[in-house]
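Hey,
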Amino acid sequence: MPRFAYCRAAVPFDIPLQSIAILLAAGAGAGVLSGLFGVGGGLILVPVLAFTLPSQGVPGSSIMQFAIGTSLAVIAFHSVAAAHAHHRRQAVLWPVVRQLAPGLAIGSFAGAYVAHLLPSATLKHIVAVGALLIALQMALDLKPKTSRGLPGLAGLAGTGAVIGIASALVGIGGGSLTVPFLTWCSVDMRKAVATSAACGAVIASAGALGFALVGFDIPSAAPLHLGYVYVPGWLALMCASVATSGFGARLAHHWPQKMLKRAFAMFLCCVAAALWLA
């Protein structure tokens, strides 16, 4: 198989061209779906990384930790850009973000530590269950009915911690949890999505940092990794997804949303089955 080789300071950088192509394709697909459905792409990135990283020298005992850590690093970049775009439209509820942020950061960082302690196979099953639950949410268009206002500081901090831990264990930016919570608390949908993007930046940044730190001493034959963040994969996925997210956003205005959401839900079910059986 042809390979792309690069060496600097005695650090091998030897990546199969086929793996680079897969990562670029995955990043492009994640970018399109992110713009199309408003998802962060983690449910695409994590499975692709899980099936690609073994060829990069990542040991099987930490495949899922690398996949999730790298996914969160990609999502962190996109969430910051998305939050900035929503901020320019004055749609982000920054007081709510500030109250959720401590819990989100602590929960996401703690989730990275929990993931570090779990066997990779167990983590794979957690991701599969997460993908299946989000698929059901999208397919059935489940939306909580407005029933209350926002809780106080302690309630928001506690909710943020739960969302942060769950998001870090699955490798997502938390939009699938944050948006329903905010709409349940009577927040306008547009502002809920915008606020969720800002929250996603906190979740993904803290989670990526957590995975980088807890995996700092992990031995791996994979080149150029920061803890559980695989740097070449992060760069390939990030660049490709940035290039295609605008295309996905344009498609969202022309294609039937219900049909697309159900198609994406079916895709997630296939992803969940593949991860569970792998």
